[in-house]
Amino acid sequence: MAVERNTFLPLCLGIVLCAGLQNVWATSTEVVPEASAKKILAVVAPNGLEKVPVVSGIALDPTGKRLAAVGDDHLVRILDTQTGAIVQRLKSHSDWVKVSAFRPDGQVLATAGADGRIRLWDVTTSNRPRELPERLSVIYTLTYSPDGRLLAAAGFGEKVWVFDGQQGALMHELTAPGNDIRAVAFTPDGKRIAAAGRSGIVRIWDSGSGHPLADIRASSRRICALAYSPDGKLLAVAGQQRSVRLFDGVSGSPVVDLAPRPGTVMALCFCGTGMLASAGSDNTIHLWNLTTGQEVQRLIGHTGSITTLTLDSRSQTLISGGYDTTVRSWNVTVPVGARVTRR
Questions:
Q1: For residue 315, what are the CA distances in angstroms to 137, 146, 217, 225, 334?
Q2: I need a surface site. Which of 184, 214, 311, 315 has the fewest CB within 10 A?
Q3: How far apart are CA 287 and CA 276, in angstroms?
Q4: In terms of Cα–Cα distance, which of 213, 250, 258, 215 is closest to 233?
Q5: Which of 255, 283, 281 is nearest to 18 (CA)?
Q6: Which of 206, 203, 205 is nearest to 195 (CA)?
Q7: The predicted structure's pLDDT at residue 14
Q8: What are the CA-CA distances from residue 21 to residues 28, 45, 293 (Å)?
Q9: What Rg value do the Cα atoms of the chain yield, rounded?
Q10: In angstroms, rounded to a whole number, what is the distance separating the alpha carbons of residues 239 and 37?
């Protein structure tokens, strides 16, 4: 496998060119059990007076009690995860809201989308949101660092914008690997940030200095989702190439490809260190045991593309949203002490 050094950087991770990984788990004899959702949350009141939106983003607050759902009707809805009741409707965006993210302290919800504006909502009050002054292009992805000190955003443009997570000041304007970025992820320690999109390249920066560290050529097609494992040892990458690819979260070297599944992968979520959930345009959530590399369960019921996944680790509940206008919750069983086997 060819490894190319980037001449403009002193790399600590290296640049990995891996257009075709060789390690693919066989699937020809698989029989994968299926399961249905334990609960479907209504994103509109059952009175028929509101447009039912497609769900493009969900975010769970740190307590697991509130869920923010956003979509194409320009509204932000906060739901009680136990009762399913809509407890707040937040209106300020002028176009499709693509993504939402709770700050880790749970006090602020960040939202963004097609209007190019980032809004910060104090969810403890009913006040109007604070709007960051920078007007960006369409924003597809938005995430806080684990400690809440940074907020990263990217979308249809050539930049990844990193803001102070408390005050909202612009900290870094990072040059992205292409002009259409669909996924951004922080490492669990918050020290690095990764972004990827149309080019198929994952670029990694030092989140404190904004200094670029590495490029990983992870795909020949668009990347739509990135996720670091909770221990930071793995980086999962997926998109239009249909296979989820796992890379070493520190060195950036390829680990293995999971078996390809139909459709574009639009969302990834680690369920502990031993299981990974992937979902997308085949309307199905695939659960992968990372000890064996096998798909162990399929979660079925969505009738449209699944755009977003998040995990409530307290109850081992996986929550999904999608273009079928529903938010669903699922029981997941996480393997204990699992680790990826290189093959």
A1: 37, 20, 36, 24, 11
A2: 315
A3: 6
A4: 250
A5: 255
A6: 203
A7: 39
A8: 19, 47, 15
A9: 19
A10: 24
